[in-house]
Design a protein that fits this description.
The radius of gyration is 34 Å and the shape is globular. Helix content is 53%, strand content 8%. Helix 2 (32-47) packs across helix 3, helix 5 runs parallel beside helix 6 (150-164) and helix 10 (268-275) crosses helix 11 (279-295). By secondary structure, the protein is α/β, with parallel strands linked by helices. A five-stranded parallel β-sheet has the order 2-5-6-1-7, sandwiched between helices. It folds into two domains: 10-26 and 235-330, no CATH class; 32-132 and 145-230, 3-Layer(aba) Sandwich (Rossmann fold), CATH 3.40.50.300. Strand 5, helix 7 and strand 6 form a beta-alpha-beta unit.
């Protein structure tokens, strides 16, 4: 539950530093970007087909992990009556996709983590240990453990999802799914998630960085069954975003348990510069700075503390480059819409219609001119400009001569 931004409990000032640090670390803020993304995910989970995929993308440190925790909490609260009537059911399954050590994402390890998250018993015994396995020139019995074959774990996950019937499966850090060997295609990775969602009729939500953009349009079938949700950072060139960022800093000021309140708003430009407008980056930075303050038993958080624990310029530049590239890629521009309309034949139809209208107007003009010619009286001359002025005088003299 979100802590109200009315200030920290003052009895915390008598507590040791680790207790006060734990309080601030647990504090989460329901800022507008987070609330909008949360509502988008919840609406999508309840509205889409049960075998759909939802892709939530945003820059690193924007608050996707916090968002996942909020969605879990709300889904669990909404399902409490059903959970009381059916204790076997799970409200939601949430797991983080672990970055591979060998450069290739391990589905075997991922499925095992899913089973453990769902409290499945005997996870290491999903394969019949009596089945002989060829080891070189001799056959031996299978030894169950973390290195069990991924296909058996895959089948076990399908069965557990059928039995526990969660509303959704949330996969955090889903960009790690793109880590694969050179012999595999990117579509093969997402086909595994797609088939799992289809077989179990369970919505899968993939939360990750802009690297998930590579998954968006791998196939027409996937595009039809997936929904994109953007969780952006705050931009200082937008006046409304700037006001919200300042409000976020004021809330953090009120929740930092120190005798002397910090003056974060006064240093808002520096704080924005080193967080690039991502609340998650800002929160982690403040936690590191507070750790140093509590370790030396200081009473105030100063600019020097912020500078000592700030992300480096190179780190911020890298984060900003990836954020800008992702924001450009996810934005739908007018040129893209025009190309789509042209390929659908909509612009051609309008051009043809406009051409027909122009041709009809020309035909009407021609017919009107012809009718005017036919209505002229016998002996009436054609209309033309008569000479005037000095030129007209010479013309008159020439006629008299």
């Amino acid at each position: 539950m979100d802590t109200e931004s009315t200030g920290f409990p003052h009895e915390l000032l008598s507590q040791p530093g680790p207790v006060r640090l734990a309080y601030f670390r647990a504090y989460t803020m329901a800022h507008p970007r987070l609330l909008a993304a949360r509502e988008d995910i919840l609406n999508a989970i309840h509205e889409v087909a049960p075998n759909s995929l939802i892709l939530l993308m945003g820059p690193t440190g924007v608050g996707k992990t916090t968002l996942r925790a909020k969605v879990e909490q709300i889904l669990t609260t909404e399902m409490l009556p059903e959970l009381r009537a059916d204790p076997v059911r799970l409200p939601v399954v949430s797991v983080e996709c672990i970055a591979p050590e060998s450069g290739t994402f391990s589905w075997r390890d991922h499925f095992r983590r899913l089973l453990l998250q769902m409290d499945e018993p005997l996870v290491d015994y999903k394969v019949n240990p009596e089945t002989p396995v060829r080891m070189g020139e001799r056959a031996t019995k299978f030894l169950p453990g973390a290195r069990a074959a991924g296909s058996q774990y895959h089948h076990a996950v399908e069965q557990v999802l059928h039995f526990r019937r969660p509303v959704a499966v949330l996969l955090d850090e889903a960009q790690h799914l793109a880590r694969m060997s050179s012999g595999r295609r990117l579509s093969d990775q997402l086909d595994v998630i797609k088939s799992l969602a289809n077989c179990t009729r369970t919505v899968h939500v993939l939360l990750g960085t802009y690297e998930l953009l590579a998954f968006r349009n791998l196939s027409a079938q996937l595009s039809r069954r997936s929904i994109d949700i953007h969780f952006p950072r705050y931009r200082v060139d937008d006046s409304n975003d700037r006001k919200i960022f300042l409000a976020v800093l004021r809330s953090f000021e009120q929740q930092i348990p120190l005798p002397e309140p910090p003056r974060l708003v006064e240093e808002w430009e520096y704080l924005y510069e080193r967080s690039i407008g991502c609340v998650g980056v800002l929160k982690d930075w403040l936690v590191r700075a507070l750790t140093g303050v509590f370790r030396r038993n200081a009473n105030a958080l100063t600019l020097r503390d912020l500078q000592a624990h700030a992300p480096s310029v190179a780190q911020c530049d890298k984060m900003l480059s990836e954020a800008l590239e992702g924001e450009v890629s996810i934005r739908e521009d007018a040129e893209g819409s025009k190309r789509l309309r042209t390929r659908l034949g909509l612009d051609c139809r309008e051009t043809s219609r406009a051409g027909s209208s122009t041709g009809a107007a020309k035909q009407v003009t021609i017919e009107t001119t012809s009718r005017q010619k036919r209505l002229r009286r016998p002996g009436q001359r054609h209309p033309h400009r008569d000479p005037i002025g000095l030129q007209a005088t010479h013309y008159a003299k020439a006629i008299n001569v």
